[in-house]
Design goal:
By secondary structure, this protein is α/β, with parallel strands linked by helices. It contains ten helices and eight strands. The structure holds zinc ion (2 copies). One zinc ion binds next to helix 2.
Length: 249
């Protein structure tokens, strides 16, 4: 091999390693092996835990429902809910960067991993519905993160988006409210336009975060009213059952 071709090969190798290094930085901790490194997967995603089928909370592997939902304090109108990770630490920070620091394109970087996970959790839907934002909030933020997440799932999996679920009341931010207030705050907040498009559909209802499940529940009630077939809630993050917190936080 000539000296020139060795130099060219080394340059290509260097460029390739820089390129892949850039691509493979963990989006959560900045370490190696991105887009989400094995340490962060273990820390925030807990593939070893189950998800409460009613509210999506991370629960012990052998359980089906969390304590709240066993006591009928969780959502009732959804077929099932699942959440990818635990809403804590680096994963919460990542979601905050999407939402509050206006970096919605970050969702594209996790699109493939999210889609791969989602198809192992839920039956295939006819369509994807994003939890809508009220127009006044949308004007303020400039984008709806639930729509961003729905869009990447649509492109990754080829499942159509279904528009027509609307937020008709500008409710207070859920984050400031208690569980009871959250449910009350959302009464009548969602309506379905073009009802015939929804009838009989199997739907993935997508949001960024679920805590009490009140938002998903309010959407699901509006969807049930127009005879949607099955409603599966799908979120990036949820809480974790209290006695399991030390395992992940
Ligand atoms: Zn990491
Ligand atoms: Zn639950």
């Amino acid at each position: 091999m000539s000296k020139a071709s060795i130099i060219i090969n080394r340059t290509q190798e260097l460029l390739r390693s820089l390129w892949y290094k850039g691509e493979e930085v963990c989006l959560l901790c900045g370490g190696q092996d991105g887009p989400i490194c094995p340490t962060c997967i273990k820390e925030y995603f807990h593939p070893e835990l189950a998800r409460c089928q009613a509210c999506g909370k991370l629960i012990a592997r052998e359980s089906t429902y969390c304590r709240d939902c066993l006591e009928h304090r969780g959502p009732q109108a959804l077929t099932r809910v699942t959440a990818w990770g635990h809403y804590a630490g680096g994963w919460r920070d990542f979601i905050h960067r999407i939402k509050y620091q206006a970096q919605p394109r970050l969702v594209q970087k996790i699109a493939h991993l999210l889609a791969e996970w989602a198809v192992t959790q839920l039956p295939p839907p006819d369509s994807i519905v994003a939890v809508p934002m009220h127009p006044s909030r949308l004007a303020e933020r400039g984008f709806n993160q639930a729509e961003m997440i729905s869009s990447v799932l649509r492109w990754e999996l080829g499942i159509p988006l279904l528009n027509g679920l609307e937020r008709v009341l500008p409710t207070r931010s859920q984050a400031e409210l208690s569980r009871q207030e959250r449910l009350h705050n959302l009464t009548g907040a969602f309506k379905v336009r073009d009802q015939k498009n929804f009838s009989g559909h199997i739907i993935w209802l997508v949001d960024d975060v679920t805590t009490t499940g009140a938002t998903l529940e309010a959407c699901a009630q509006a969807l049930r009213a127009v005879e949607v077939g099955e409603i599966y809630g799908l979120c990036l993050a949820a809480g974790i059952e209290k006695n399991l917190v030390s395992a992940g936080d």
